[in-house]
Design goal:
The chain has 2 domains: about 30-230 and about 330-390, Rossmann fold, CATH 3.40.50; about 230-320, no CATH class. The longest helix is centred in the middle third of the chain and has 22 residues, at about 160-180. By secondary structure, it is an alpha/beta fold. A 9-stranded mixed β-sheet has the order 1-2-3-5-4-6-7-8-9, sandwiched between helices. Helices cover about 35% and strands about 20% of the residues. GO terms for molecular function: triacylglycerol lipase activity. Keywords: Hydrolase, Signal.
């Protein structure tokens, strides 16, 4: 990851939880600009092949315009910031007047600007998940998130519910304005999809949409894959049980230090992690990838106790990012492999149980029997498309 995304992980603002809540009446996002990056003809799309045999890619007679939009959103303290994203506009050769639904696609964990939607090299056409959805008849909006793209001058608030939700919702509103500006009609159906951090971003945005934007952006369906929605239980698990090390350590440490900064806990790295790991993480968070020990072996006793204590400052930060305490009226599926080694299946299972108990009658749990975290993303895309096709008008 670029150093500028890591510098501010540890130090932050004063510890006031209310300061990390969105303003009661946030300003509406403003579509600042839009530009077409590339136009893929049907002939070009037909030359592309899927990256996995289990994901059928059939561009049929589609052609796709790829556009970058820049828009205004708000941070958790209420200040405005410029953000960016990509919008894929499909149309068909035999009928240029077709209307398509809008799908907001939230990307998984990105470690640099080159891994977010607007960092793609569109000059060299290649298969992608947004393109997969676009060539099945969806207008696809892809937020970069805060910390990337036009907003890469501030750190990314990794797995932070409010930041991800607001940037995603504002991207949808800006996309709606973009479509109106371009005179592009759509079906007024809206779908959400995302995997890993994108799954967490999707369910976070879904909650915000239903609570505050139901009239402007009514949801038709949502598909969330392998996100740490039950955040308190997720952290209890990874700090108390054996985990795989490597990239998992990077992800868990990044999230820990992000919460330390966002919620103004101001603890040194050595408060969370033992020697010699604390020194290594302080020098380079990226080097955490090389630590093969289980994450629970990196953690100090004080940190592990904080995770178990819901009244501790860190326990409250976890609770603030927990997505199990509400109910949804939207047709929603949670897709997760039971053998996921990075985000344990229990996060989806417990979220499903808790939300169903609160009245989420249209919530469904799709348990994939086998498969590790990254390969299961392919199955998620296929199952999501099938789900949306059932819900389309």
């Amino acid at each position: 990851m670029k150093k500028k995304l890591l510098v501010a992980f540890v130090f932050g603002c004063l510890f006031v939880f209310s300061a990390c809540s969105p303003p009661s009446t946030p300003p509406k996002p403003v579509l600042i600009s839009s530009s077409q990056l590339v136009f893929y003809t049907n002939a070009v799309l037909r030359l592309l092949t899927s990256t996995n045999d289990s994901l059928t890619y059939q561009p049929a007679d589609y052609q796709v315009s790829v556009n970058r939009i820049v828009y205004q959103t708000t941070l958790t303290d209420g200040t405005t910031i410029t953000a960016s994203g990509i919008v894929y506009l499909p149309n068909q050769l035999d009928s240029t007047s077709n209307r398509y639904p809008l799908l907001s696609f939230q990307h998984p964990t990105a470690f640099s600007n080159t891994e977010v939607p607007s960092g793609t090299n569109f000059g060299a056409a290649s298969f992608s998940y947004p393109l997969y959805f676009a060539t099945h008849g969806y207008i696809v909006a892809c937020p970069d998130y805060i910390g990337y793209g036009a907003a890469d001058h501030v750190p990314h608030n990794y797995e932070h519910r409010q930041t991800l939700a607001q940037a995603t919702v504002d991207m949808m509103l800006a996309t709606k304005a973009f479509l109106a500006q371009k005179g592009v009609p759509w079906t007024n159906q809206l779908f959400l999809a995302g995997y890993s951090e994108g799954g967490f971003a999707t369910l976070s945005a879904q909650q915000l949409l239903e609570e505050k934007y139901g009239q402007e952006l009514p949801l038709s369906g949502s598909s969330c894959g392998a996100g740490p929605y039950a955040m308190s239980d997720f952290f209890r698990y990874v700090t108390q049980n054996t985990t795989v090390g490597g990239i998992a350590n990077y992800i868990y440490a990044w999230e820990t230090l992000s919460y330390n900064r966002i919620y103004g806990l101001n603890k040194p790295v050595s408060y969370y992690f033992k020697a010699p790991y604390a020194e290594q993480i302080t020098q380079s968070l990226d080097s955490t990838r090389s630590i093969t020990a289980s994450f629970d072996q990196l953690c100090t006793d004080e940190f592990r106790a904080d995770v178990r204590n819901p009244l501790s400052p860190f326990g409250k930060a976890l609770a603030d990012n927990d997505l199990t305490t509400w109910h949804t009226a939207t047709a929603t599926q949670l897709i997760h492999s039971q053998q996921d080694e990075i985000i344990p299946f229990l996060t989806s299972q417990q979220t499903y149980t808790a939300m169903r108990q609160r009245g989420s009658a249209n919530l469904h749990l799709v348990a994939i029997p086998s498969g590790s975290h990254v390969p299961t993303e392919v199955l998620f895309m296929r199952r999501s498309l099938d789900w949306f096709e059932q819900l389309k008008k």
